[in-house]
Amino acid sequence: MERKLILPGDKIADGKHDMPYAYFENGAMYATLIGFIDETGRYMPIEKPYKPLRDDIIVGVVTDARHAGYSVDLGHSSGGFVSSRFVRTRLQLGDIILAKIRSISETGGIMDLGDVKRLPQGKIVRFPTSKIPRLIGKKSSMLELIKKYGNGDVVVGNNGYVWISDKSDIPKIMKAMKIIDDKAHTSGLTDTITQFFEKGE
Fold first, then answer.
1. What is the mean predicted confidence (pLDDT) over 91-116?
2. What fold does the segment set 5-45 form as a domain?
3. Tens digits of residue pLDDT in 125-143
4. Which of 53, 149, 160, 178 is most buried as measured by Cβ atoms within 10 A of its Cβ?
5. Within a 10 A sphere around the Cβ of 35, how many other Cβ atoms?
6. pTM for this entry
7. Alpha helices, H only, the chain
8. What percent of the chain has pLDDT over 70?
9. What fold characterizes domain 122-199?
């Protein structure tokens, strides 16, 4: 079943709420971007730029290695930096990492990263950040489904980079991700993906 499309200026909730991509006026919240209301009643913009937040879990690629630390591509206008003090393993150019944003500069520039883990060989792909909650699912249900039928590990970053293990069925997982991207605004998406995998397409 298609869910109601929300257009900029449409009312999305009564009262005042701390809600991104929305504004308060005349006792209600109104949308600033095209989106929809998901099964939990949350307003979900269809497309939005990634806005880094402290403690976000991200996936990135090491692009420069220096004595002080490592520059990391996050698929964002501002990159990340890992201080040598906060990483136990020596990283190399091209390494794919999982990390947490420790801090963001006042100008929104370079982000300091911590809790760094180097991921094994795999493929990194981009996914719209506005649809990341649909890719993960309630209590990670969608992500666990993808891992199960894709026969491998998948790590999703808040920044829209997704790492897929070399040992998994990468083409099948990418097809499932494309369906989720295309049908993020529909209900029953978990059933749709289950059917896709069980049909073995």
1. 88
2. OB fold (Dihydrolipoamide Acetyltransferase, E2P) (2.40.50)
3. 999 888 899 999 989 999 9
4. 160
5. 25
6. 0.77
7. 132-136, 141-150, 170-182, 189-199
8. 95
9. Ribosomal Protein S8; Chain: A, domain 1 (3.30.1370)
Joined tokens for residue 37: 């209301």
Name every residue whose Cβ is closer than 8 Å to that of residue 18 and which is 6 or more positions away in sequence.
none
Q: What is the pLDDT of residues 24-50, one digit of tens each?
A: 888 999 888 777 887 777 787 776 778
Helix axes 170-182 and 189-199, enclosed angle (nearest 10): 150
Tokens in use for 105? 């500069």
- Show me where the domains of the chain are located: 5-45, 57-118, 122-199
Question: Inter-axis angle of helices 141-150 and 189-199, to 10 degrees?
Answer: 0
Q: Are 95 and 63 in contact (CB under 8 A)?
A: no
CA 121/CA 91 separation, integer angstroms: 14
Same fold, 5-45 and 57-118: yes
Cα–Cα distance between 123 and 143 in angstroms, integer?
16
In the CATH scheme, what is the code of domain 57-118? 2.40.50.140
